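USER:
Try writing one entry.

ASSISTANT:
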Amino acid sequence: MRNYYKISEISKLYGIGADSLRYYERLGILRPRREANGYRLYSLKEMYKLNIIRDLRRLDFSMAQIKEYLADQSVGNTLELLRRERRLLGERLRELRAREELISERIAVLDNARKIRTGVFTVKNMPERFCVQLCEHIARDEEMDFAVKKLHRRHEEKIRDFGNQVIGAFPSMENMRRGRSNVYDAVFFILESETPDYDFILPAGEYLSYFYGGGYEQNAERMAEVLAYAENNGLRLLGEPFEMYEIDNRDTMREEEFLTEIQVRVE
């Protein structure tokens, strides 16, 4: 076995780019010797450092921390490092379990959404719901996406996961009555739990519910159907109707797969 290897050989063997090896050299972590022609030669004595660097970088240790450890490697320092690694791995595992829970929730929501029958009127008893909102005239899908992002940015500390966030919007009823679809006065998020910092509350009570599939250009027609159903069945409106997006462009780019719920509080 040779005592020295070229940078190309080390790069291939360890799967580390030549630029990274040169960077480690500039930091003083690796000290290759130079041949007369200027080629770097890495000794077997230093190669063990590459495994340590790779493993610690995976745990987000900084190069300064790695350099400090390698400069004074001892059993005591190794034990301290291993304990730190164990703490970091514990944090990662907790993060991964939390992420797994969020993904499982989203899978359940989408699986249930695909089973929902569209075009059916129901009356639901809903709990009190705390909301944050952005009041803004919205007349295009692109404007809606931008408004949702602004609202998310404003309240992101309250949002556990944007993929699971319940998003709703208040259509412009003035435009709806004129038959103009896809125009809104506000977008809102329903928060997962009660908070002192909210914009409005959807009161507890009975809500007329109607799901429709497909694009939003039909929502004036669908809204008219909801209002007609309420009138024909003696349901008095106790608030403005709103939409909630069960399946939207967070989940699919196929408009025919969109699923939207219209709700309005009734008596």
User: Anything to note?
Assistant: The domain at 4-73 is CATH 1.10.1660.10 (Multidrug-efflux Transporter Regulator; Chain: A; Domain 2). The radius of gyration is 29 Å.
